[in-house]
Predict the structure of Alkaline phosphatase.
Amino acid sequence: MLFAGGASVGITAALGAAAPVRAAARRAPLSDVFRLGVASGEPTPDGVVLWTRLAMDPVAPDGLGGMPARPVPVEWQLARDENFKRVVRRGTETARREEAHSVHVELDRLDPGTEYFYRFRVGTDISPVGRTLTTPAAGTASRDLKLAVASCADWQVGWFTAYRRMAEDHPDVVAFLGDYYYEYGDYKYPVRDQAGGECLDLAGYRLRQAQHKSDPDLQAAHAAAPWVVVWDDHDIENAWAGDVPEQPDPPFLPRRAAAFQAYYENMPLRRNQRPDGWAMSLYRTIRWGAVANLHLLDTRQYRDLYACTGKSGTVGPDCAERLDPNRTILGGKQEDWLFDGLRTSEATWDVIGQQVFMMEMDWVNGEQKGYSNEGWDGYVGSRNRLTAAIEESGRNAVVLTGDVHSHWAGELKRDHQDPGSKSVAVELVTTSITSAGNGLDEYPNTQVLLDENPHVKFFNGRRGYVNATFTQKEMKVDFRSLAVVTQPHYPAYTSGSFVVEPGIPALNQV
Ligand SMILES: [Fe+2]
């Protein structure tokens, strides 16, 4: 049999007869299939999603991880202890080629506010162990939320040590705000070589996702806590806005559909978040007892095109279009959903996790003003409607932001066009995991930027992440920084700490 099988593959493949090849693939042994690690996400008081994706060769060029075409049964276990002495749930899911052999296990009827451990098995292969937890029951005020916040992980420019340090800080939940990878082709002098070129199709996005998931530091961060994820631009294409791409080739909407499909496959998301072609609904609220509601926004899929130039990232002469009250960065439906969520919230904190700079920022030193048209400065109508909704609802809002590859903290004004306007929220901007390389704590123009934007209170230009702890009494934030990411193993240090009290949207340095 062995001999006959081996011979038939070569001969029939050469003759173009596919059936015996498929038969051989069905028999191919599986080994070391958990090279992409494990993850969990979307926690509720009674459930969570467990995720893995099988791959024997994470950088296989077709994006399918070197897996045979056949469906593979994957056993899973959930336990109260990391040694799996107290297993509370078990089952089997099928990993299918149509979803790149990813597995999404949606659990329900679990205990609220409880820590669990999980693992998967295929044959004799057993996955690494992940830790996850359910959120506290509605109304529970006694359980604090320790949230880690991150964005922007460019494989080619450095090591993902910041993810490792984040895991070592033992967060309850990780909020990832976009740019989980970069879709770009190869850089000239990469710190780390990436597989594949620019992501243009489903194979390309699957491969980029798989290579990232093969990173041990990223795996540690996924195994440490449930993640809640939203994309920004590079998860699809630099600076995309609604249906409008930066580059016309390849056709954008099929490309977006491919990126969304790979995004779903590779993230611990729920089945009802699966894309429908080039549409995928990602905005939602994660509830943490009576302490916090975490509203996660999508500022890419429904936004109007860039003001003033039609192109993103413009910092230069101001123009009236960005102030147009009809412009939107969220789209009407998402905006209604968010404002309704704020109006009906009963949590101490309403945390708004999103992608791009929300408070006003004059990026040009000196007399001249320069605003980015990619952030909310390019969508002032949207910003004013949101700040009005925060004010009217009387919520304690904390905005979380990524995208700009440096730490910032500041106060969001009710109306930044009105110099006497009061603050309605604080904004915490997390730096990148690696993007932009090592950076500096301060740049020559940092103090001028802070002086010319007095509502902005803090800057740090290293790589890292944010730890924010929400309690009934206060929110405390630690900005975590690493001096070096172009070499592995560097420690993290706290570059700034602030406390915010409920009812007073102001940053108090500690
Ligand atoms: Fe980025």
Summary: The first helix runs from residue 2 to 15. The two ends are 72 Å apart (CA to CA).
